[in-house]
Amino acid sequence: MKLPRRDKAPASPGDSRPEGPFATRAGPGQPKEIGFRPFVEKAVVGLCLVQDGRFRYVNPKLAAIFGYSTEELLALESVLDLVAEENQPGTRDSLRKWLEEGPHTVPFTFTAVRGTGERIDVEAHATATELEGRPAVLGTLFDVTERKRAEERSAWQALRDPLTNLSNRALFMERLRQELAEARRQNRRLAIVYVDLDRFRFINDTWGRNVADTLLQSLGLRLRRRVREVDTVARVGGDEIVILMPDIRETENLSVIAQKVLAAVARPVQIEGRMLEVTASIGIACYPEDGDDPEVLLRNADNAMYRAKELGLNGFQLCTADLTSRAVARISLERGLRTAVDRDEMVVHYQPIVSLVTGRITGLEALVRWQRPEEGLILPADFIPIAEQTGLILSIGDHVLRTACRELKEWHRMGLPDLRIAVNVSARQFRDASLLPSIDRALSEAELSPEHLEIEITESIAMESADIVVGNLEALRGRGIRIAIDDFGTGYSSLNYLKRYPVHSLKIDRSFVTDVATSAADAGIVRAVIEMAHGLKLNALGEGVETRDQFLHLQQYGCDEMQGYWVSRPLPAEGINGLMARELEMWVNPA
Question: Distance between CA atoms of 439 and 416, rounded to whole angstroms?
Answer without folding.
Answer: 22
